[in-house]
Design brief:
Length: 495
Amino acid sequence: MPITTGFLNKQSQKRAAPEHERVILTQFTELGLAEPVLKAITAEGYTNPTPIQAQAIPALLKGRDVVGIAQTGTGKTAAFVLPLLSLLATKPSRPAPRTARVLILAPTRELAAQIADSVRTYGSHMRPSVAVVVGGVKPGAQIKQMSRGVDFLIATPGRLLDHMDTRAISLADTTAVVLDEADQMMDLGFMPAIRKVMAAVPSKRQTLLFSATMPKPIRALADDFLRDPIEIAVTPESKPVERIEQAVYMIKGNAKPDFLAELLAADDMDRAIVFTRTKHGADKVVRHLGNNGLYAEAIHGNKSQNQRIRALDAFKSGKAPILVATDIAARGIDVDGVSHVINFDMPNISESYVHRIGRTARAGKSGIAISLVGNDERAYLRDIEKLTGKSISRLDPPAGTALDLSLPEEEGPHKQQRNGGRSRAGGGGSRGGHSRNGGGSRSPGGKPKSAGSSQGGKKFGGKPGGQRPARSGGGNSGGGAAPTRSRGSWSPASS
């Protein structure tokens, strides 16, 4: 099952699009984009916009405020980057010192860096000035960069406020503001910071809000800051991508580590992201996998910027085929060829499940999502199935590890309410979320890259219907230590 990820679709969808996705304009050349932007798109090999791009770009070029609701992997970033570049191309001017013509707010370091990459890629024939202002790094370089003024400022809310407080950044000349992944910013506790930022932006501006879901607090935010916006929803809210094959193992909590190693040792695992609920849990999983001959990297809020960059680079290059992450990586991390997403811990925010599994099945491809559900997580599973409107298939775990569903449920970790407060799902935000805002990079929506292919025959590490996952070596049947993976690329020694 070859899996590739592309930020823009190179070809028209071969399947019939749902009614709400059908648009008249199907070529980038028909959307009214400026010539330099079209040249950059053509150079990247793209001709056909995604549904969110086809609908948002014409509206934004007319100066309208826009609310865009679409799942991850649908091309939201290009939907606002392309028209904003075009608008700047038609009104060339030099930004004043310490100012930014366009402000883009993002919840995480990684997403901010990816947006900046997209601006540079699609502005390659314009060469706009770009600054990334995030936490996790010393502020001096950011202050120096902003001293000259920039066309695009991509920032996380907390670090931006810090620079505004010291007058290193002024938003007095900002003409367009983008709130990207607004629902995640709300989950991370950034709403107070966002309101302070928006209060500093001129009232005469263009405002864009993009989100995967539209809960009431985000709706209220849009009502407060957008003027007569056009709302574009190209996918049902909170519905997982239909191309993702999902399965659940109801398994004892103490059996999860060994079973995870066994799953990841299966031959059809090409590139996998494993989600844990806590930072400490992510590190423990990495150590356990390493002890079982599987090379994994961790990314979470306690990692420094350089550590996070190195981990992502290793994962993207295939040096580390496994990335263990908290929910900090559930949005915006666009890595080619993720074949599997595994929930080692179930998220205590139902919507996070949608964002987690959205790391696979990108750009029209298929993917597999596996969840390991302990006795204290059964309520989370019910909430997820209620949210998605879909019952997830149950598969049988190894003998002796299955939950006794007749026993009373244990109380799980605190369920986060959607009140704009801090998420406890790992990588949550403080006043500015300083430890969660910083570097990272991605393929900036360029040509999709293949990350190899799975063997095609095995699903969930084994055959559906309760059989155990295929093992690449010996081991006991009770979920003991997983065998060392035979493929060299999975071994730390081969990296």
